[in-house]
Amino acid sequence: MKSGRSNSEKTPPLARPPKPGIRPQTVNSLPLSIPLMKLIYMAGKGGVGKSVCSAATGIWTARQGLETLAFSMDPAHSLSDIFDLDIGGQPKRISEHLYAFEPDLTVESQGFFRRYKNIFTALFGLFEVEVKPEDFGSMPGVNELIFMDKLNDIYVEKKYDIVVIDSAPTAMVLPLLQLPSITTGFVTRVLGMRNKWLGVLNLLEAGFGDSILKEVRSMRIKAETMRNALLDPQTARITVVTIPEKAAVMESQRLIETVESHGVCVSSIVINHVIKECSCDFCSRKIASQDAYIQDLKQRYGGKSIAILPDYGAEVKGDALSQVAEDLYGAGQLVA
Protein backbone atom coordinates (compact mmCIF):
# COMPACT_ATOMS: atom_id res chain seq x y z
CA MET A 1 0.00 0.00 0.00
CA LYS A 2 1.35 3.41 -0.92
CA SER A 3 1.80 5.93 1.84
CA GLY A 4 1.15 8.98 -0.31
CA ARG A 5 4.15 10.83 1.23
CA SER A 6 5.95 13.52 -0.74
CA ASN A 7 9.48 12.94 -2.01
CA SER A 8 10.84 15.32 0.58
CA GLU A 9 9.65 13.22 3.50
CA LYS A 10 11.85 10.69 5.20
CA THR A 11 11.61 7.09 4.03
CA PRO A 12 9.87 4.86 6.64
CA PRO A 13 12.14 2.30 8.39
CA LEU A 14 10.64 -0.71 6.61
CA ALA A 15 10.55 0.84 3.16
CA ARG A 16 13.68 0.16 1.17
CA PRO A 17 15.01 2.46 -1.56
CA PRO A 18 15.31 1.08 -5.07
CA LYS A 19 18.51 -0.92 -5.52
CA PRO A 20 20.58 -0.45 -8.67
CA GLY A 21 19.53 -2.98 -11.28
CA ILE A 22 16.53 -4.12 -9.28
CA ARG A 23 13.88 -1.62 -10.27
CA PRO A 24 12.84 -1.21 -13.92
CA GLN A 25 15.12 0.92 -16.07
CA THR A 26 13.80 2.42 -19.27
CA VAL A 27 15.08 3.60 -22.62
CA ASN A 28 12.55 5.52 -24.71
CA SER A 29 9.91 4.44 -22.15
CA LEU A 30 10.55 0.73 -22.86
CA PRO A 31 11.47 -1.44 -19.84
CA LEU A 32 14.86 -3.12 -20.12
CA SER A 33 14.30 -5.57 -17.30
CA ILE A 34 11.77 -6.08 -14.54
CA PRO A 35 13.10 -8.68 -12.10
CA LEU A 36 10.34 -10.77 -10.57
CA MET A 37 9.47 -11.14 -6.95
CA LYS A 38 9.88 -14.83 -6.15
CA LEU A 39 7.48 -16.79 -3.97
CA ILE A 40 8.74 -19.85 -2.12
CA TYR A 41 5.98 -21.98 -0.58
CA MET A 42 6.74 -24.44 2.19
CA ALA A 43 3.87 -26.94 2.31
CA GLY A 44 3.21 -30.24 4.05
CA LYS A 45 1.64 -32.02 6.98
CA GLY A 46 1.62 -30.37 10.39
CA GLY A 47 4.62 -30.99 12.62
CA VAL A 48 7.12 -31.91 9.89
CA GLY A 49 9.21 -28.73 10.13
CA LYS A 50 7.72 -26.31 7.57
CA SER A 51 8.28 -23.29 9.79
CA VAL A 52 11.92 -24.24 10.44
CA CYS A 53 12.53 -24.66 6.71
CA SER A 54 10.73 -21.37 5.98
CA ALA A 55 12.82 -19.47 8.51
CA ALA A 56 16.07 -21.11 7.35
CA THR A 57 15.25 -20.28 3.73
CA GLY A 58 14.61 -16.66 4.67
CA ILE A 59 17.92 -16.50 6.52
CA TRP A 60 19.78 -17.90 3.52
CA THR A 61 18.24 -15.59 0.89
CA ALA A 62 18.74 -12.55 3.14
CA ARG A 63 22.42 -13.43 3.48
CA GLN A 64 22.63 -13.34 -0.31
CA GLY A 65 21.60 -9.69 -0.14
CA LEU A 66 17.98 -10.28 -1.20
CA GLU A 67 15.23 -8.40 0.59
CA THR A 68 13.26 -11.26 2.11
CA LEU A 69 9.94 -11.59 3.91
CA ALA A 70 9.02 -14.74 5.85
CA PHE A 71 5.22 -14.68 5.69
CA SER A 72 3.08 -16.92 7.88
CA MET A 73 -0.15 -18.20 6.33
CA ASP A 74 -0.78 -20.55 9.23
CA PRO A 75 -3.46 -19.26 11.66
CA ALA A 76 -1.45 -20.99 14.42
CA HIS A 77 1.64 -18.87 13.78
CA SER A 78 5.00 -20.52 14.50
CA LEU A 79 7.56 -18.07 13.12
CA SER A 80 7.81 -16.12 16.40
CA ASP A 81 8.67 -19.34 18.21
CA ILE A 82 11.14 -20.40 15.52
CA PHE A 83 12.93 -17.04 15.33
CA ASP A 84 12.71 -16.89 19.15
CA LEU A 85 11.22 -13.38 19.26
CA ASP A 86 7.85 -11.68 19.14
CA ILE A 87 7.08 -10.76 15.53
CA GLY A 88 3.65 -9.17 15.90
CA GLY A 89 1.07 -8.17 13.31
CA GLN A 90 3.34 -6.02 11.14
CA PRO A 91 6.50 -6.93 9.17
CA LYS A 92 9.33 -7.01 11.70
CA ARG A 93 13.02 -6.70 10.92
CA ILE A 94 14.82 -9.89 11.99
CA SER A 95 18.25 -9.11 10.57
CA GLU A 96 19.78 -7.32 7.61
CA HIS A 97 17.54 -7.89 4.56
CA LEU A 98 15.24 -10.22 6.51
CA TYR A 99 11.72 -9.46 7.77
CA ALA A 100 8.98 -11.66 9.17
CA PHE A 101 5.22 -11.15 9.26
CA GLU A 102 2.50 -12.97 11.18
CA PRO A 103 -0.82 -11.30 10.26
CA ASP A 104 -3.17 -10.75 13.17
CA LEU A 105 -6.31 -12.49 11.94
CA THR A 106 -8.58 -10.50 14.26
CA VAL A 107 -7.33 -7.21 12.84
CA GLU A 108 -7.03 -8.45 9.26
CA SER A 109 -10.52 -9.97 9.27
CA GLN A 110 -12.05 -6.63 10.24
CA GLY A 111 -10.20 -4.88 7.41
CA PHE A 112 -11.18 -7.64 4.99
CA PHE A 113 -14.83 -7.39 6.04
CA ARG A 114 -14.81 -3.63 5.46
CA ARG A 115 -13.15 -4.05 2.07
CA TYR A 116 -15.88 -6.42 0.86
CA LYS A 117 -18.70 -5.35 3.17
CA ASN A 118 -21.34 -5.13 0.42
CA ILE A 119 -20.75 -8.73 -0.69
CA PHE A 120 -21.01 -10.06 2.85
CA THR A 121 -23.94 -7.84 3.76
CA ALA A 122 -25.86 -9.24 0.78
CA LEU A 123 -24.83 -12.85 1.39
CA PHE A 124 -25.54 -12.87 5.11
CA GLY A 125 -28.75 -10.91 4.53
CA LEU A 126 -30.08 -13.68 2.30
CA PHE A 127 -29.92 -16.07 5.26
CA GLU A 128 -30.92 -13.42 7.79
CA VAL A 129 -27.62 -13.89 9.62
CA GLU A 130 -25.87 -11.04 11.37
CA VAL A 131 -22.09 -11.30 11.47
CA LYS A 132 -19.96 -8.71 13.22
CA PRO A 133 -16.62 -7.73 11.65
CA GLU A 134 -14.73 -8.84 14.78
CA ASP A 135 -16.31 -12.33 14.54
CA PHE A 136 -15.84 -12.69 10.80
CA GLY A 137 -12.39 -14.28 10.99
CA SER A 138 -13.66 -17.25 12.98
CA MET A 139 -15.95 -18.42 10.18
CA PRO A 140 -14.87 -21.57 8.28
CA GLY A 141 -12.91 -20.87 5.11
CA VAL A 142 -12.46 -17.16 5.81
CA ASN A 143 -8.81 -17.51 6.86
CA GLU A 144 -7.88 -18.63 3.34
CA LEU A 145 -9.57 -15.59 1.80
CA ILE A 146 -7.88 -13.20 4.23
CA PHE A 147 -4.40 -14.68 3.70
CA MET A 148 -4.88 -14.67 -0.08
CA ASP A 149 -5.90 -11.02 0.05
CA LYS A 150 -2.91 -10.08 2.20
CA LEU A 151 -0.46 -12.06 0.08
CA ASN A 152 -1.81 -10.33 -3.03
CA ASP A 153 -1.13 -6.94 -1.43
CA ILE A 154 2.47 -7.97 -0.70
CA TYR A 155 2.91 -9.43 -4.18
CA VAL A 156 1.55 -6.35 -5.98
CA GLU A 157 3.56 -3.98 -3.79
CA LYS A 158 6.83 -5.66 -4.89
CA LYS A 159 8.69 -4.42 -1.82
CA TYR A 160 10.65 -7.66 -1.38
CA ASP A 161 12.76 -9.80 -3.69
CA ILE A 162 11.75 -13.05 -1.99
CA VAL A 163 8.64 -13.99 -0.02
CA VAL A 164 8.93 -17.30 1.83
CA ILE A 165 5.47 -18.57 2.71
CA ASP A 166 5.04 -20.74 5.78
CA SER A 167 1.75 -22.39 4.83
CA ALA A 168 -0.88 -23.99 7.03
CA PRO A 169 -0.94 -27.80 7.36
CA THR A 170 -3.89 -27.83 4.95
CA ALA A 171 -1.59 -26.45 2.24
CA MET A 172 -2.81 -22.90 1.70
CA VAL A 173 -1.63 -23.18 -1.89
CA LEU A 174 -4.77 -25.19 -2.78
CA PRO A 175 -7.30 -22.44 -2.00
CA LEU A 176 -5.15 -20.01 -4.00
CA LEU A 177 -5.49 -22.34 -7.00
CA GLN A 178 -9.21 -22.93 -6.56
CA LEU A 179 -10.43 -19.42 -5.71
CA PRO A 180 -10.35 -18.01 -9.27
CA SER A 181 -12.79 -20.61 -10.61
CA ILE A 182 -15.07 -20.06 -7.61
CA THR A 183 -15.08 -16.28 -7.94
CA THR A 184 -15.37 -16.45 -11.74
CA GLY A 185 -18.48 -18.59 -11.39
CA PHE A 186 -19.87 -16.14 -8.86
CA VAL A 187 -19.18 -13.15 -11.13
CA THR A 188 -20.76 -14.94 -14.10
CA ARG A 189 -23.93 -15.57 -12.12
CA VAL A 190 -24.01 -12.01 -10.82
CA LEU A 191 -23.59 -10.65 -14.34
CA GLY A 192 -26.27 -13.01 -15.58
CA MET A 193 -28.83 -11.65 -13.17
CA ARG A 194 -27.53 -8.08 -13.24
CA ASN A 195 -30.43 -6.59 -15.15
CA LYS A 196 -32.95 -8.38 -12.97
CA TRP A 197 -31.53 -7.94 -9.49
CA LEU A 198 -28.85 -5.24 -9.32
CA GLY A 199 -31.45 -2.59 -10.00
CA VAL A 200 -33.50 -3.92 -7.10
CA LEU A 201 -30.45 -3.89 -4.83
CA ASN A 202 -29.68 -0.32 -5.90
CA LEU A 203 -33.21 0.63 -4.82
CA LEU A 204 -32.48 -0.69 -1.32
CA GLU A 205 -29.44 1.55 -1.11
CA ALA A 206 -28.03 3.79 -3.80
CA GLY A 207 -25.17 2.01 -5.61
CA PHE A 208 -25.47 -1.12 -3.44
CA GLY A 209 -25.81 -3.58 -6.34
CA ASP A 210 -23.05 -1.95 -8.35
CA SER A 211 -20.77 -1.97 -5.29
CA ILE A 212 -21.30 -5.72 -4.89
CA LEU A 213 -20.31 -6.33 -8.49
CA LYS A 214 -17.22 -4.13 -8.10
CA GLU A 215 -16.10 -5.99 -4.97
CA VAL A 216 -16.61 -9.41 -6.54
CA ARG A 217 -14.57 -8.38 -9.56
CA SER A 218 -11.81 -7.07 -7.29
CA MET A 219 -11.71 -10.38 -5.40
CA ARG A 220 -11.59 -12.33 -8.66
CA ILE A 221 -8.72 -10.24 -10.03
CA LYS A 222 -6.71 -10.82 -6.85
CA ALA A 223 -7.37 -14.56 -6.92
CA GLU A 224 -6.38 -14.78 -10.58
CA THR A 225 -3.24 -12.73 -9.94
CA MET A 226 -2.06 -15.14 -7.25
CA ARG A 227 -3.01 -18.21 -9.28
CA ASN A 228 -1.08 -16.92 -12.30
CA ALA A 229 1.91 -16.29 -10.04
CA LEU A 230 1.75 -19.88 -8.80
CA LEU A 231 1.54 -21.22 -12.35
CA ASP A 232 4.68 -19.31 -13.38
CA PRO A 233 7.80 -21.37 -12.48
CA GLN A 234 9.88 -18.21 -12.78
CA THR A 235 7.85 -16.64 -9.97
CA ALA A 236 6.78 -19.42 -7.62
CA ARG A 237 8.43 -22.52 -6.26
CA ILE A 238 6.72 -25.05 -4.03
CA THR A 239 8.71 -27.19 -1.62
CA VAL A 240 6.97 -30.02 0.21
CA VAL A 241 8.39 -30.77 3.66
CA THR A 242 7.90 -34.24 5.09
CA ILE A 243 9.40 -36.78 7.48
CA PRO A 244 10.21 -40.43 6.65
CA GLU A 245 7.11 -41.93 8.24
CA LYS A 246 4.07 -43.47 6.56
CA ALA A 247 1.40 -40.88 7.43
CA ALA A 248 3.59 -37.93 6.44
CA VAL A 249 4.83 -39.55 3.23
CA MET A 250 1.33 -40.55 2.13
CA GLU A 251 -0.03 -37.07 2.79
CA SER A 252 2.89 -35.54 0.90
CA GLN A 253 2.15 -37.74 -2.09
CA ARG A 254 -1.50 -36.69 -2.08
CA LEU A 255 -0.49 -33.04 -1.76
CA ILE A 256 1.91 -33.25 -4.70
CA GLU A 257 -0.65 -35.02 -6.88
CA THR A 258 -3.36 -32.49 -6.05
CA VAL A 259 -1.17 -29.42 -6.60
CA GLU A 260 0.27 -30.73 -9.85
CA SER A 261 -3.21 -31.62 -11.12
CA HIS A 262 -3.80 -27.85 -11.16
CA GLY A 263 -0.77 -27.34 -13.40
CA VAL A 264 1.62 -26.22 -10.66
CA CYS A 265 4.92 -28.05 -10.34
CA VAL A 266 6.33 -29.03 -6.95
CA SER A 267 10.02 -28.42 -7.50
CA SER A 268 11.56 -29.92 -4.37
CA ILE A 269 11.03 -32.12 -1.32
CA VAL A 270 12.68 -31.77 2.07
CA ILE A 271 12.85 -34.96 4.15
CA ASN A 272 13.30 -33.85 7.74
CA HIS A 273 14.26 -35.56 11.02
CA VAL A 274 16.43 -38.25 9.41
CA ILE A 275 18.40 -40.16 12.03
CA LYS A 276 22.15 -40.31 11.56
CA GLU A 277 24.13 -43.52 11.78
CA CYS A 278 23.91 -45.24 15.15
CA SER A 279 24.71 -48.80 16.22
CA CYS A 280 22.08 -49.18 18.95
CA ASP A 281 19.19 -51.56 18.25
CA PHE A 282 16.49 -48.88 18.44
CA CYS A 283 18.22 -46.52 16.02
CA SER A 284 19.11 -49.36 13.65
CA ARG A 285 15.43 -50.31 13.31
CA LYS A 286 14.44 -46.67 12.97
CA ILE A 287 17.07 -46.02 10.32
CA ALA A 288 15.94 -49.06 8.31
CA SER A 289 12.33 -47.86 8.42
CA GLN A 290 13.25 -44.30 7.44
CA ASP A 291 15.51 -45.47 4.64
CA ALA A 292 12.66 -47.40 3.02
CA TYR A 293 10.52 -44.26 2.81
CA ILE A 294 13.44 -42.12 1.66
CA GLN A 295 14.25 -44.51 -1.19
CA ASP A 296 10.59 -44.66 -2.18
CA LEU A 297 10.41 -40.86 -2.40
CA LYS A 298 13.63 -40.71 -4.43
CA GLN A 299 12.37 -43.30 -6.90
CA ARG A 300 8.90 -41.78 -7.16
CA TYR A 301 10.11 -38.20 -7.56
CA GLY A 302 13.45 -38.60 -9.28
CA GLY A 303 12.89 -35.43 -11.30
CA LYS A 304 12.63 -33.22 -8.24
CA SER A 305 15.32 -31.91 -5.92
CA ILE A 306 15.27 -33.93 -2.70
CA ALA A 307 17.03 -32.60 0.38
CA ILE A 308 17.77 -34.55 3.55
CA LEU A 309 17.84 -32.85 6.93
CA PRO A 310 19.10 -34.74 9.99
CA ASP A 311 17.43 -35.02 13.34
CA TYR A 312 19.38 -32.31 15.17
CA GLY A 313 18.67 -33.87 18.55
CA ALA A 314 17.11 -30.71 19.97
CA GLU A 315 14.54 -28.06 19.17
CA VAL A 316 15.67 -25.95 16.22
CA LYS A 317 15.12 -22.23 16.74
CA GLY A 318 17.00 -18.95 16.94
CA ASP A 319 20.70 -19.23 16.13
CA ALA A 320 20.35 -22.94 15.30
CA LEU A 321 18.48 -21.99 12.11
CA SER A 322 21.76 -21.03 10.47
CA GLN A 323 22.85 -24.67 10.45
CA VAL A 324 19.59 -25.68 8.73
CA ALA A 325 20.13 -22.97 6.11
CA GLU A 326 23.66 -24.23 5.54
CA ASP A 327 22.53 -27.87 5.28
CA LEU A 328 19.79 -27.02 2.79
CA TYR A 329 21.42 -24.38 0.61
CA GLY A 330 25.09 -24.11 1.56
CA ALA A 331 25.53 -27.82 0.90
CA GLY A 332 23.85 -27.43 -2.49
CA GLN A 333 20.86 -29.68 -1.78
CA LEU A 334 18.45 -26.89 -2.79
CA VAL A 335 18.82 -23.65 -4.73
CA ALA A 336 16.97 -20.62 -3.33
Task: Please provide a brief summary of the model.
The protein has twelve helices and ten strands.
Outline the structure in words.
The chain starts with 25 loop residues before the first strand and ends in a 6-residue tail after the last helix. The protein has twelve helices and ten strands. The protein has helices at 50-63, 79-83, 105-115, 117-126, 133-136, 142-157, 173-192, 194-204, 208-231, 246-261, 281-300, 321-330; strands at 26-27, 30-31, 38-43, 68-72, 92-95, 98-101, 162-166, 236-242, 266-274, 305-310. The protein is 48% helix and 15% strand. The protein has one domain: Rossmann fold (3-Layer(aba) Sandwich). Helix 3 crosses helix 6 (142-157) and helix 4 (117-126) crosses helix 9. Residues 1-34 have low confidence and may be disordered. 35% of the residues are buried. With 336 residues, the protein is of the alpha/beta class. The strands form two sheets. The chain has an eight-stranded mixed beta sheet with strand order 5-6-4-7-3-8-9-10, with helices on both faces.
The helix/strand class is alpha/beta
Distance N to C terminus = 27 Å
Helix content: 40-55%
CATH topology call: Rossmann fold
Biggest sheet architecture: 8 strands, mixed
Q: How many individual helices?
A: 12
CATH architecture: 3-Layer(aba) Sandwich
* Sheet with most strands: strand arrangement: 5-6-4-7-3-8-9-10
Q: How much of the residues is beta strand, in percent?
A: 5-15%
Radius of gyration in whole Å, from Cα? 22 Å
β-strand number:
10
Helix and strand run = EEEHEHEEHHHHEHHHEHEHEH
pLDDT under 50 segments (min length 5)?
1-34
Shape: globular
What top-tier CATH class fits best? Alpha Beta
Number of domains: 1
